[in-house]
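The material for today's practical consists of a large collection of protein records. An example says more than a description, so a record of this kind follows:
***
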Amino acid sequence: MENLIFSLNATAPIFALMVLGYLFRKIGLIDEKAASWMNKFVFKVALPVLVFKDLASQDFAGTWNGKFVLFCFVVTSVSIAVIALFSKLIVKDLGKRGEFIQASYRSSAALLGIAFIHNIYGDAASGMGPLMILGSVPLYNIFAVIVLMLTAQTAGETTDQTGQVAGGASLGQASTQAAGAAAAQDRRALLVKTLRGIITNPIILGIAIGLVWSLIRIPQPKIFQTIVTNVSALATPLGLMSMGATFEFKKAIGDLKPALVAAFIKLFALAAIFLPIAVALGFAGEQIVAILVMLGSATTVSCYIMAKSMGHEGTLSSNVIMLTTFGCSFSLTLWLFVLRSLGVI
């Protein structure tokens, strides 16, 4: 019951902020332009500062556990690959497929993870949360950029245009060669654009700077800490209210089936597959709880922010975030009960 109450206290305010954003839109306090600005500000400023703050203050060197970090890294990579393949069976629309993939694997590891682990184990588990974040969060963001760029509407339009050129290839050999050259050029342009998107993505830059800051142990003056804390505190409320303000029930109902599948994957399927493997490899206690948070916590609001900022509709992302935010209070409690009953934690 304590774990259920804690989970509800952690997730209920998130759900409430989405509802507030929706209500503010209805009464005219937030319009589409304001919601778009909020989303842009969170993506380019508040969220990068938040991940920097979470990582820069951690002692990765002092709590290093290579086996644990490698496990988180491999599991995250395998999960993304399997979900990407599975998504072709569930979601036919390319743009929505990108949202489905991201929402199915990307957890609130940094926001919910450390608080959840500390609630159970206290300061004794201070090293496991940051190490789990190190093994998963950078991959979350790198693959999110790749997936969202490759499935954005511009990518689909490029493919369609290439197809149209190829369709006219019957006019002669010259047309065929021209179509092939155009397709190769489009692929190179898309690759360059994807790599540039990864390197210049604000969230990935925030992660990189935070990791370097932590390893070099650069001092943080009080004024600097206060500014970083105040700016990072804007990320979650602004992002959630922006999502609520742009939420449309008609579109949400149309995306309900893939959203339910993604929510099931996020809350149950990944944990059911990889937790037994983690136990077999000897992980226990706070390590298992950290892995559980990585695999089975709610989809992070960053999914919606990145999807909207990179040319996607965002409806499917917001659906999954709401479903998993509401459901993870009960699913995490269920997983903890099962793990405690088996004597793993």
In short: Residues 155-171 have pLDDT under 50 and may be disordered.
